[in-house]
Specification:
four-stranded parallel sheet, 11 helices, alpha/beta, binds D-glutamic acid, 10 strands
Length: about 270
């Protein structure tokens, strides 16, 4: 039987966005193995209510648990912001979401305490980033902007070019008079639009991909619990989706290389 430390890390999202998190986990811990689930058939999650998000999360957590994961990463900003505590109760393994690492990174990056958050409508409505930032720095100002067209753009593979630039410019214009010097990407799809977002922002504004801080925190948690993989085998990641294979595979191959392809499963 496999040592628990050698088991894979479960990562999930509504679709391809969580791949931006998986890539940072692999960059921080190249020996770790990932089992990924993307719910492409039911994406986007951004406008769904908490009960439905909890139902979907329960199915995904059960699926990944059956794969024997040693830890879970909620690589979806919306689930992390709206129902993280509910999802945390669905599992016994260590679990981490996107909000805390992102907020910590934004607070480290800002000098003025004026922070922009770009996220899905559901995440913005939850107020989770604002609450987490205010709890750590009560004098901070948070400017959250819902960007509903970003997820479909990414799922379509339109990361750059005129359309991405135009849409980014339109959303980012809401931050124009905010004086924000750090902008947190509160949805895991958005790092794939980082170029368009950076272009739309004034120079010198830090754009924060929370996945980098998340991977670092996860490494700390695994080390603390003696769960870092030790067998020295070259990892083979597994990618599962509920549908939309062609589009998912295109982005998967771009991030993880040609040898990978997703498997459609019913959960
Ligand atoms: N990647 C998800 C997030 O971080 C996308 C949400 C959606 O599917 O609308 O919020």
């Amino acid at each position: 039987m496999r040592n628990r430390a050698d088991a894979p890390i479960g990562v999930f999202d509504s679709g391809v966005g969580g791949l931006t998190v998986a890539r940072q986990i692999v960059a921080a811990m190249p020996h770790e193995e990932i089992v990924y689930f993307g719910d492409c058939l039911r994406a986007p999650y951004g406008d769904r209510g908490p009960e439905q998000l909890a139902d979907f999360s329960r199915q995904i957590v059960d699926f990944l648990t059956a794969k024997g994961v040693k830890a879970l990463v909620v690589a979806c900003g919306t689930i992390s912001a709206r129902i993280f505590e509910t999802v945390a109760q669905m599992t016994d393994v260590p679990i981490i979401g996107m909000v805390k690492p992102g907020v910590d990174a934004a607070l480290t990056a800002t000098k003025t305490g004026r922070i922009g958050v770009l996220a899905t409508a559901g995440t913005v409505a939850s107020g989770a980033h604002k609450a987490a930032i205010s709890a750590k720095r009560p004098d901070a100002n948070v400017f959250a902007v819902a960007c509903p067209l970003f997820v479909p753009l990414v799922e379509e593979g339109w990361f750059d070019g005129d359309v991405a630039d135009l849409v980014a410019k339109k959303y980012v214009s809401a931050l124009e008079n905010s004086g924000a010097d750090a902008v947190l990407l509160g949805c895991t799809h958005y790092p794939l639009l980082a170029c368009a977002i950076e272009k739309a922002l004034p120079p010198g504004v830090a754009v924060i991909d929370p996945a980098i801080a998340l991977a670092d925190s996860l490494k700390g948690i695994l080390a603390e619990q003696n769960l870092l993989r030790e067998d020295g085998e070259k990892p083979t990641h597994q990618f599962y989706i509920s549908g939309g294979k062609e589009k998912f595979d295109g982005i998967l191959k771009m991030i993880f290389g040609q040898k990978y392809e997703a498997k459609i499963v019913k959960i």
